[in-house]
Amino acid sequence: MSVFISATHDVVFKALFVRNPELLKPFISDVLEEPLNEKDRVLILNPLPPDSCFFGRFATLEVKVEATDRDFFAGFQGVKSKYNPERAFQCWTHLYREQVRLGESVDTLKKTYWTSFVDDKRFDCAEYRSDFSFRNVKTNEPLSDVMNVVLFELPKVPNDPVPGDNQQKWLALLKADSPEALRQVKELYPDPAVQKAADAILEINADDSLRCRISVRDDMFGFRDYVGSDEE
């Protein structure tokens, strides 16, 4: 029996959306609360190399969103191992560097999110979403409205659906740590995109080639804390 790997594992998280890019629009619309329509485009900036062992930025998902009335960039990463805020800020600043070519003005910078989904509790509060930006430490006045870091603490997500909370269904999906937990997500949330994502996570776990590469990569870095329950 093989060990189930949840989508809080960074590689599984990324594979979910690279293999199913049509899920990105509803995911971004709900999780970042940035509504997108069918004419808007979401471009993956760093798709998975076919033979990659997912080192460094290969294990993050970076996208550019071209919407009718605005453009913005976003980076995402599932974090089953210990959350490293410095690493998150490194990835976040990379998204800015990629936007401006040598000699161009920084006035062209677009709004950019870096979003992490962590499988532990970081802050002593009830809210599962925390937003960060550059602000004056005395007055709390924002320095810029284009720099955004978002952190979701998955253990704080309620087990039962909360009416009007569109983020919750995706967070419940990401933290599901067994096939049975995924089946419960499908029963609780009839959203077609969430249903498809749940099936996709099961398919990823059934991909022996990907699992082998994940094992090699995680052994090299000592990542062995993502283990969930055994598959049935």
Number of strands: 8
Tell me the strand order in the biggest sheet. Answer: 2-3-4-5-7-6
Helical stretch tally:
7
The biggest beta sheet reads: 6 strands, mixed
Percent strand: 15-25%
Portion of residues in helices? 25-40%
Q: Per the principal axes of the C-alpha atoms, what is the gross shape?
A: globular
Secondary-structure element series? EHHEEEHEEEHHHHE
Q: End-to-end span in angstroms?
A: 7 Å
**Class per helix and strand makeup:** alpha/beta
Spans of at least 5 consecutive residues with low confidence: 224-232
Cα-based radius of gyration, to the nearest Å: 18 Å
Nearest-integer average pLDDT: 86
Commentary on this structure:
The longest helix is centred in the C-terminal third of the chain and has 14 residues, at 192-205. With 232 residues, the chain is of the alpha/beta class. The strands form two sheets. Strands 2-3-4-5-7-6 form a six-stranded mixed β-sheet. A two-stranded antiparallel sheet has the order 1-8. Strand 4 (71-79), helix 3 (85-97) and strand 5 form a beta-alpha-beta unit. 34% of the residues lie in helices and 19% in strands. The chain is globular, with a radius of gyration of 18 Å. Mean pLDDT is 86; it is low at 224-232. It has seven helices and eight strands.
Helices, strands, pairings?
Elements: E1 3-5, H1 10-19, H2 24-31, E2 41-44, E3 61-66, E4 71-79, H3 85-97, E5 111-118, E6 129-132, E7 147-153, H4 166-175, H5 179-188, H6 192-205, H7 208-221, E8 227-230
Parallel strand pairs: 4-5, 5-7
Antiparallel strand pairs: 1-8, 2-3, 3-4, 6-7
In short:
This protein is of the alpha/beta class. It is built from seven helices and eight strands, in the order βααβββαβββααααβ.
